[in-house]
Design the sequence.
């Protein structure tokens, strides 16, 4: 059978790739992928010789930037060992990865245990399974504004619009529509649990600092309130820290802003900083003890893969030894001011919001009262960002600023200047025609 034709405009390796490999979350003809050939620090290089700012940390995961020497060496060593393992194999990096993870996890998880998988979605799937196994209850309360992964299960427990194509998803999900900017707390979480029947609710699955769905930062004390409500009804609190973990918000984990320990914390992305696939479930001592006798019906072939474990050890060591969590907080304070200044001069910037090195810029067509930036405008902006070699995530009328934690003050500043130029060029041009 003939291979499908390459999407228009692609040449060379990109054209070859498009005949054989799918691009994610897009009609294939609309994708315009970059051929990355190298990287150093907060920059990467493409095959045409251009040097790009990585203002999106690849997929929000390259927290240690590109070409990190410690990460490279750890993976070379692990690859040279060429160790093949099965899920319950014993080896030093596996023990060390779990020890380090438990050391940096919120204090209440210190006596717990770690389950090692390959992605954020898998971590959340396994967390939900554990909560069901431990409580004997089925229902999962999830927040409308959240994303927990692309598996059918995790799409079912999120209000992300991308779930619509697959509905109906798993049953036993209770959606709680939380607008904490308005309510300064977890809104009607308690009523949602009461309506569901508290004895049937296993867990609240929460992306506390919403990432890809628009960067919404909860008010101080929010996690404490969630913890209290969960405790009142014997419901487990699962904190999804896949995107917000490992310094992204200026703390090891977003729950640390409130000093709260969930029952289960899930992580991925920054866990291996993108150098190997990796995800983890960190479960409390109480959950760990439950499975001393009960069967843990969770597993995968590449459980605790040696390359994953080596990457986890090297990444946590780098965050710690290089003081990167404090650094993210400091850079984030500066970024807050710089983004405010960026917005002051540009009436089409409706809002900048975030913390640490996780920010969203919300755009509208003109000054106050004008509609959100149109798809045509956002397409023009994407072109202008590309021209200036700025890799940034975009969604609807939002662009995201999420550079690696190792970025220098000067490079952050230079990237923001390039971003300002791209915005100015986009809004100086006559209104673009809608894309066809
Ligand atoms: C908060 C959150 N949870 C879970 C996931 C899913 O992670 P993965 O893509 O590694 O499955 C993501 C991915 O972006 C995420 O942002």
Sequence:
């Amino acid at each position: 059978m003939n291979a499908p034709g390459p999407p228009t405009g692609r040449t060379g390796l990109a054209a070859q790739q498009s005949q054989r490999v799918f691009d994610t979350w897009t009609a294939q003809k609309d994708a315009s992928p970059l051929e990355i050939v190298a990287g150093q620090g907060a920059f990467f290089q493409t095959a045409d010789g251009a040097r790009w700012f990585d203002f999106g940390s690849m997929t929000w995961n390259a927290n240690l930037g590109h070409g990190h020497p410690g990460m490279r060496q750890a993976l070379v060593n692990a690859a040279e060992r060429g160790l093949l393992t099965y899920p319950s194999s014993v080896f030093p990096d596996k023990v060390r990865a779990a020890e380090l993870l438990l050391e940096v996890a919120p204090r209440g998880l210190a006596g717990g245990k770690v389950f090692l998988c390959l992605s954020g979605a898998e971590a959340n799937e396994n967390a939900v399974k554990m909560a069901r196994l431990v409580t004997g209850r089925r229902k999962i309360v999830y927040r409308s504004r959240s994303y927990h992964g692309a598996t059918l299960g995790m799409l079912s427990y999120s209000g992300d619009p991308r779930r619509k194509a697959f509905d109906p998803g798993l049953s036993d999900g209770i959606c709680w529509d939380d607008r904490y900017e308005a309510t300064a707390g977890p809104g009607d979480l308690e009523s949602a649990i009461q309506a569901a029947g508290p004895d049937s609710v296993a867990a609240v699955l929460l992306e506390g600092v919403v990432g890809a769905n628009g960067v919404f930062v909860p008010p101080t004390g929010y996690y404490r309130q969630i913890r209290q409500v969960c405790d009142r009804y014997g419901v487990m609190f699962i904190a999804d820290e896949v995107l917000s973990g490992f310094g992204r918000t200026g703390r090891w984990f977003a729950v640390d802003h409130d000093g709260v320990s969930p029952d289960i914390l899930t992580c991925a992305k920054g866990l291996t900083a993108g150098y190997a696939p990796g995800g983890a479930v960190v479960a409390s001592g109480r959950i760990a003890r439950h499975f001393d006798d009960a069967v843990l019906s969770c597993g995968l072939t590449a459980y605790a893969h040696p390359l994953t474990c080596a990457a986890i050890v090297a990444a946590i060591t780098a965050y710690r030894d290089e003081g990167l969590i404090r650094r993210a907080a400091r850079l984030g304070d500066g970024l807050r001011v710089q983004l405010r200044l960026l917005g002051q001069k540009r009436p089409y910037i409706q809002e900048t919001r975030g913390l640490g090195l996780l920010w969203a810029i919300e755009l509208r067509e003109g000054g106050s009262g004008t509609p959100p930036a149109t798809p045509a405008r956002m397409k023009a902006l994407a072109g202008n960002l590309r021209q200036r070699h700025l890799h940034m995530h975009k969604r609807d009328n939002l662009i995201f600023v999420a550079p690696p934690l190792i970025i220098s003050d000067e490079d952050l500043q230079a990237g923001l200047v390039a971003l300002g130029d791209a915005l100015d060029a986009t809004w100086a041009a006559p209104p673009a025609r809608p894309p066809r």
The mean pLDDT is 95. The radius of gyration is 22 Å. Residues 324-344 form the longest helix (21 residues). The chain has two domains: 34-67+323-428, 70-321.
